[in-house]
User: Fold these one by one.
Assistant:
Number 1:
Amino acid sequence: MSRYTSTEWLNRAVVCLAVMLTAMAVEAQDVTRRNIVTQVDSAVNNINIVVGTDTMQASQYVEQVEEEMKIPTLQGFTLSADIAGPIFYAISKKGSVEAALRLSIKNQYYPIVEVGYAKCDHTDDNTKIHYSTSAPFMRVGLDYNILKNRRQDNRMMVGLRYGLSKFNYDMSGPLITDPIWGGTAPFDYHDVTSTCHWAELVLGVQVKILKYFHMGWSVRYKKELKVGEHDHSRPYYIPGYGTTTNTSCWGGTYNLIFDLRL
Amino acid sequence: MNIKPLILLCSVSAIVLASCSSNNCPLENTVLCNYYFYDIEGNAVTYTDTITVTTLMPGHKTVYVYRKLGELTVTLDTPDSTLVINGYSETPTTVRRDTILVNQSSTHDHIQLPMSYFNAADTLVFKYSSISRNDTIIVAHRGYAHVELPECGTHYFHHLSDIEATDAAIDHVEIVNPLVDYKGNENVKIYFNGVAE
């Protein structure tokens, strides 16, 4: 059984818009690159290079040299910030700010550390149960660039993350009444401590937009590993993970990325 | 413009849209303690006698006891002048309040009973149609409110700590699962006298 509020639909519309904007950027870059390659190919085919007494076509020479060129191990760092989280918080009172530091190894492997601060302030319309938390979180993991041409500026990543957050939350609700024996008691808990661990499977795209800047998105499948819960409640929202409606969920980021090339 | 990447990416976004925030509240969300019936040798039995279960409530009430030599004693919540006219003696008495939890249940292999939220122990009186004596079961427990998700509301769970029973029809009782929640697990075994045929 699924039910969405208007806010949740708005969240999804924002995600959809972000994905489509990136897709258009990818397509625009792809068209530009194809045009340049076509021009270079037509030019190169008309050039003969003389080496000693041999003559060879430039296009063949370039392919051989490219294969032999080694990509240096350490390519640099990228610093990125998620710009979707604050928008989500403004819309739904559940969101985060987060930044990531990613190391580039041969433009193929990207060890990454993500840190952030998430906030949730939620009251259910029907039950009037209120939940709030605000706490930092971190993730560590590795991305892998699946594009064959690792020299190009765009990247398509698959990756894994381990997430951790230790946080306090407040949960309160209406008075509880015993329907048979009678009596009432409050439901009001403050500063309940919980530690949660989770794993994420990441698929992401990064597109170069300026000399040192990329923009991209990531879609994440998240799975709870361990959730610190108590007799009276379990956390409704885990910073960095999201809502715990199920033991797994989907999430995403929309990132502005700054390249620090070595 | 190549349409394939757009189709792929829109498919991904559709998955994102459809995945989260489903309502995951339990369909069976009534918290009841489950008492299952066994014979003295531990075989599961279907108890065919009619059982009525009442529980003691906080506070007291006045009842009217009518006695007459050679007749059964009658106890009523309200005075009955016709019994006095017929020769019964009327004695108002103060007793603990009670309420019926299960009324004349029969042919069941288990019985489900609610638990008090704030009392340290519940007193359950089992009345049998074929036995003149009653059994009393006293269940000690700790109750606590539990919220699984805000949209699911508050439920009151219990942790059973001790149980004892009288021996009219019951041989003994034991706790098999101390957590009483809405999952419907067996919590208490009631072993009745005798062996199932």
Number 2:
Amino acid sequence: MKNHKHFLLLLLFCLLPVLAIAGPKGAPKPPIVFDDPQVEQDYQELAEELRCLVCQNQNLIDSNADLADDLRREVAKMLKQGKNKEQVTEFMVNRYGDFVLYNPPVKSTTWLLWGGPFVLMFVGVFVLLKKIRANKRESQTDSADLSDKEKQKLQDILKNQ
Amino acid sequence: MKKQFMTPLIVFGLLVVLLVVGLIKAKYVRDVPSPLIGKPTPVFNLPIVEDLQKNFNSEELKGQVSLVNIWASWCVSCRAEHQVLNYAAQKKGLKIYGINYKDDLVDARQWLASRGNPYVKSAFDKEGLLGIDWGVYGVPETFIIDQQGHIRYKHTGPVSAGDLENIIIPCVESLKSGKEVHCEKP
């Protein structure tokens, strides 16, 4: 009997980490609906461009995080109030920074992000061209210039055969 | 060693260094720099957890150096942080204001009753809309507010005893003294 109790206790202990995964309580909220198809399209486009801050590799559409849901609702609310996409984007950037955008603006803090790939590409092309040129020069000069000593050696080998 | 092998080797070595640095710094990646630093706090006026008849108005943050801590009873890492906040309020004399984020009122009151209340008052942000204004993305978060009501520092995640001694208190003291401000990220 006592063993049994211990076992149950142990089982409960193992469950603790599962129980500890917590989030805000509350009833599920109603889905977001739109009357105007244009507003709905704006909403879709925005929610795909905005990053979920909690699970940073997902956008607002993909994410199941509680915050993402709140932000989706906020975006929908603002669009329904007649705000345009730029105003909604500005609202988000003012609170969460450029990080919230999957399509960040070009400015001094993001030039490496935008320019980096091109710089790498140019370096790659430059190295490739240099390599090709070097190979060409090598192939043009290969068998032609043997030294006298080498010519002698070659003759010897051919004779011995 | 032949020269032709040196270049790829050096490039590879640099790449390894880059990746190792990235790995070591990876734990800070989640720390999104807040655009609110240097700006006035969001304007709000919400009922407080302790008594819904009373309000917490953002105007109250002006004229003093204070902390604003976003917390919730469902937030696991807030538990670890709570005793640090208690210590900061009771022993270090810091003024801490709370924003109770997306919580249940009964749970929130229970939390304060059982764990101690380090807050001057806590705004009851049931829907989390005030949280969005503060750019909250991971509870707990802690902000340092200067006398003008401007946000000077943001700490994401639980404040440890070390964070309190090494970052929070020096920043608060420097803001109070009005001399050189020390509120940089470590």
Number 3:
Amino acid sequence: MFVFQTLALATVFWFGWTLFHNTLSNMESRGISTGFGFLDETSGFGIIMSLIPYDSTMTYGRTFFVGLLNTLLVSAMGVVAATIIGFVVGVARLSSNWLIAKLALVYIETIRNIPLLLQIFFWYFAVLQTLPSPRQSLDVADMFFLSNRGLYFPTASAEPGFGWVMAALIVGVAAAVFVHRWAKKRQFRTGQLFPALRVGAVLILALPLLMFVLVGRPLVWEMPSLTGFNFTGGASILPELAALWIALSLYTASFIAEIVRSGILAVNRGQTEAASALGLRSSFTLRLVVIPQAMRVIIPPLTSQYLNLVKNSSLATAIAYPDLVSVFMGTTLNQTGQAVEVVAITMAVYLTISLIISGLMNIYNRAVALQER
Amino acid sequence: MKKQLLLVAIATTLGGTLMAGSVQAATLDDVKSRGHVQCGVTSGLPGFSQPDENGNWTGIDVDTCRAVAAAVFGSADKVQFTPLTAKERFTALQSGEIDILSRNTTWTLTRDASLGLNFAGTNYYDGQGFLVSKSLGVDNAEQLDGATICIQAGTTTELNLADYFRTKGMKFNPLVFDTSEQTVSGFAAGRCDVLTSDRSQLAALRSKLEDPSSAVILPNIISKEPLGPVVRQGDDQWFNIVKWTLFVQINAEELGVTQANVSDMKSSTNPEIQRLLGTTGDMGEKLGVPADFGFRIIQTVGNYGEMYERNVGPDTPLGLDRGLNALWNNGGIMYAPPVR
């Protein structure tokens, strides 16, 4: 048995090496330059959206990080939104209210049965491009401007003294955590409930706000204003980002909703009945009895959905959102011609992101899994 | 278990040998044994390469490939077309999927030196320009500060644009699409203020707009874009055939040999025409194609001027004047080495 395993392993290595060696020698014989030196060369092209400072005098290596961060941004936004929508719809699907349950059913069956690329095109070309031009943009209180250039909103920059507000926020959070722990202890001891959530929220919001007024409002707002072709000042959400975000979130949410439903149905009815027999309100039953047990069923398939979402974000290239595939595997690959290297790097990146997500979800899964003693 | 392992071993050995077997062969031999030239073109750009409703490809880039097929096989129909995006084109050529890339591709040092490719001449001298909507009220590219600009991914125009705006100290938002059709739909939908590309392409893309008169091409030309056919590096014979096919077409125009009079010209006493049409000398043999390859090219595709007028000239929807693309003795820079 051992011999065969060694043989198999050797074959795999030999296969990999042959692949690698052949690629290199074929590329050399065709006069195609190889290596990763191109990453230090000047890129010379512009990118519409970057989370880090970037202009065309920077390197191809920099374009990699610009693309990567844009991918991570839309993925993170998508994961959060898809989880929230998915949980709400999944619970709604089980609602005893006929209309709500059927609406959730229609949503799930429609969205998850239409190809994602079509949905992205729908949101981009059919919905967002019907917005007015910048000169006719819809504005709210001269602060928010919505046009086919995106949503422009004011940004705030901190002045001296803002540190105090941040300090107040930290104190507020610490106090809220303390109150929550104290309330829990008290409940164990006396059985009495204390509105810890509400008090905590007030603490977190009110303390920094109070400090903000006390130190004289140390924030400067920068308003977007129309100059020439477009808005300057403030910040914006590109229509491409919005379309991709909406499409990815809604699509993945429809799958998450079904996962949530299956998780909840997996919890024995007896549990719910026992909870109501004890006099728990239905919202408490859901939060304290059903969801914690359902999570054990939900987490593993949920991980797959997160991985799908991240990988699906590469469809960005179809609507000009500058993600990793569009920027790095698109423009950079083409300007340098280093196809093998660029594709290898990009594949390694997606693999790494996926493995990290799986790892984190596995840690969480272990934490909520049934502890058998 | 044993059986499975054996299968794996066989599969990998086979895979390995297959890959090791991909040694470069002469393109001309491949083309001859296949029976047609495989030519990479755009997925649809009026005047350069576009299929009509019957699936017949037309355009100046298409004719460049047809001329090569005429030189090799004596028939302009022995060619098949592979539509490619700008991003796909070089990989397709490098990997051997196509024999010629004739897809309004700009000749640059980087592409010539590091991609394993050779540019076999220029079939259209172009320059990058800007298409803007008339309603914007702009008449010069220097007024484009802050504009959102639609552009095709993987082109030299992406680089020129960044250079131009940086040297002028202006800002711009590049909206990068995969295909030129998408840039047009982005422009038509008003997502961008400006569409930038080579000026010939802009003329072609403008003709695709619902109302072409609603947009104008600005007078500024911000780059040199010599467009031409490309082949793989390392196969000099094929490189020469493609190069001299184009040269023959240019020389034919200079000598007044046209599709209509080429049969009569065969009896011409002009030694240059005799060599061009293969009635004397062994020009074809030197290249590895039939002796009358020049005659075949002109007979089936025509000379350079005819190819130009038919596809992009003033009488076509594109309506482009010869300009730089006129012959050297006629105010342009089209010049071919002698067939001798």
Number 4:
Amino acid sequence: MVFRTRRLAGASVAVAAATALVAGCATGSGGSTSGASGNTLTLWTHNAGNSAELDVVKKIIKDFNGSQSKYKVKLQAFPQSDYNNSVVAAASARKLPCLLDVDGPNVANWAWGGYLSPIDVSGSEVPLSDQLASTVGRYKGKLYAFGFYDVALTFFARKSVLNTYDIRIPTTDKPWTKAEFDSALAKLKKSGKFAYPLEMGTGGSGEWWPYAFSPQLQSFGGDLIDRDGYKTASGTLDGKKSVEWATWFRSLVTKGYMAKKSGADPNKDFLAGKSAIQWDGSWNAAKNAEKLGDDLAIIPPVDFGDGPKIGGASWQWAMSSTCSNKAGAQAWLKFSRQTKYFVDYAKATGTIPGTEAAAKQVDGYQPGGKFNELVQFARKYAVVRPVTPAYPYISTEFQKAAQDIIAGADPKNALGQAAKAIDNDLKSNNYYAG
Amino acid sequence: MTTMIAALERLRPVRRTRTTHARRRESLTALGMATPAVVLLIVFVVVPLALTFALSFTDARLISPTPPHFVGLDNFTRLIQDPVFFKSLRNTAYFAAVVVPLQAGLALVLALLVNAKVRGVNFFRTVYFLPVVTSMVVVSLLWTFLYRQDGLINHMLSALTFGHVEGRDWLGDPATAMPAIILMSVWQGVGFHMIIWLAGLQTIPAELYEAADLDGAPRRHRFRHVTWPGLRATRTFVLITITIQALGLFTQINVMTEGGPLDSSTTVVYQAMRTGYEQQQTAYAAAISLVFFVLVLAVSLVQRFLTREKD
Amino acid sequence: MTSFLKNLGGHTGRVILALVFALPLVFMLVSSFKPDDQIFGDLGSLHAFLPVGALSLDNYTGVFERVPAARFLLNSVLISSITVVLGVIVNSLAAFALSRMRWPGRKLVLTAVIATLIVPFETFALPLVWWVNQLPLLRVNGFHLEWTTGWMDTYQVQILPFVANAFSVFFFHQYFQSIPKELDEAAIVDGAGWFTIYRRIVMPLSGPAVATVAILTFLPAWNSYLWPLMVVQSEDLRPVMVGISYFFQLNVGWGQIMAYSSMITVPILALFVAFQRSFVNSIASTGVKG
């Protein structure tokens, strides 16, 4: 009997060991979890679902690995919707890769949290000073990240439709005013041709909400937080101007100008003529131009009083603080900063090149090109989302407030609640000092 | 839980005929056999759960340069002032209160339908069970598509009523979001409990039915006096598994509504996840989890009390 | 004739319910062969459920361009089947000890095991991420084994946390109770040990319970989503459900989502259809009845 007990215990150990072995074999060759093993560096990107952009990353890695024999960079791509969760989980286990990309507004949070390390890219082909300001991720005066492109928000419409209803086609120099915009929507609605003349992607979720709508809030004169020290949102997010924005935003739904929740594919609905004006990102510009030709109007954001505004900062590259081979990571970052890669990115993703030099080489984005206006929007109107470690929290609260307002919540209450929650969060984090 | 505890009570004392030595060997072997499962449960459930509970008394953050500090009951005082938490509690209770009887009842109807001795019942059993085999993430995505304003359900409604019924955006309306999720959840889960009921039905001795037939009892009576009493143990099992599953409502909410609109579909587990991950407030989320754990435990005990075996 | 009429009500009910349960899945499968435009176009008519129009495998080829689907499927098969095999062994052993043997503390252990049933996994997932990274890992380095720490990015982190399962223990426990204890006593008189009784007597009699536990372990393992996202970084180690989120970048192609969903669902449905009868019978004959 004793023998049998021992045999049983032996069997259990054997099973456990076998599992460990199977698992060990599977990862033995990888061993990539410390960010780098020797001179092989791991790189994470959010692009698993976007093969066009992923191909550019692959190309830079291939070129880099071929350009020298010391370092090797190894790619791991994640689906975007859960990329941040993966990074946070890895960081909590101190298993971040050496190189990773980060959405612009999250740079401050990740830098503050100790995920990222300041980088030095001096001496690379493209100097930092050439870049669009919104493509450079700084926190507390230190450089943490840089991006190859930015995106611009814009209205798309058909010139023919606007002309039919006698609506002025605005220009960068003379954007629509709030009154003009409202009357345009009223005319379009009255025509009866459009169930909802305005399409703003209200069926979307996540970062789209603060990205798309906080610039409108800012154009009204409000903001997400008092940017003077980033110590409180009360009085700003629920201030008079912000409530004006929220009231207007809600009225779009009550007046029937905009759907409470847009369809499965807003851009397709616009192209099919279901909506007259679409608030969208520059990434659809090329597609729209292809379908509509010269009839496409690329329209600057509306000036709601405080000037036209769009959100700045898209995905950027950074280095983790736990990287065991920082020299290698810096080498990759510097290598990647070549004009040709800025060009490749912009071409592959239909986004705005991060430098003038690159813009000159991308069809449509060179001065006078049909998309050059978008470059101007990014230069003139871009407001970066608040550069504070509290941003991810602010983002979730704003998102909820905006969605509640559309669903019928009292604008002042909804914003007041969000402001209070943000203030609580700031206080409980000692205002993100440290 | 009753069934499980009833199971405990059935552990019959083994006759004391063997020697102390044999019993010691038996104990050792038993320990050896139970050890792998117990160790795995301790490592992968008990320890992380204990960690969660410990975190609820700190100010731990998901991302933070400073280590967590002990803050006593701060998170719990904040919790009782949090309006969203009470909405989450209410919605969770609402969901469970509707889903438990609805799913259990529908499952029983299905089980009775496929327990009949007619051709093709195997086909129907399979079809009713199909959604159970389909992942909840896939099901939620699929139904999000069906529930849209321009989705399949509204088109069907309009076609079936010759345009008299105008559909709505089911998930976008605070009044219908939760009912829509309830309907889908029952659709997905009912097949499993149908099988459980079926199992119970098949253990009722056929002689009882024959006796009832001899007495000339109508079908209704047959159900009330033979079937229903014969399903007592199964009832408890169905009740408890659906309750636990319903109280843990999360995936559907996360994929379909994110708690909205106007907090009409936020639930306790969803709120804990949103607070803990998206909003990075680990400690507060841990406090929500702890309260949730206590509540589920309380519900289970109440159910056990109500369904206790009276004999 | 009368019996047919009597059954007519039941038949109608069965058929209508069958439509309710099957149609959404039929819609998914049928749509996976249609271009996006047509999926939306067909919504207004019965065409939504019929394989008509411009059918093609384009969505499927699109899926393979976007997601390393074959690798994901292989991983899921591997992870799910190892979880099932280990789960059946570990949980049945524990249930055997709890239901057929006499030892101090078994009641306490059974209660504690059952209590773990009520905690949803989501509530302690994140501390678990941190925790699995403190665990020791034996791995192969060249030709020798070495100990390191941290289970991130492995197969085992996707398997071991889900092997021991309170529900499975309970299920086996109930089933074992229905096997006469006299068998054990007779075997002991013949000089058999407990492990032999487990392996030679109880397990061979427990086929239905094994089948049920296998299926109920397989489904969540196949469908796991949140956990692999948090603990697995290499694309080579990811399971199928993670692939779903690959489709939510930029513009969502519903046709491709339907294709991918069908691809990871249909094999499971086929498996179930094949084993349907034994599965139902197995639950029916196990301890769930009380």
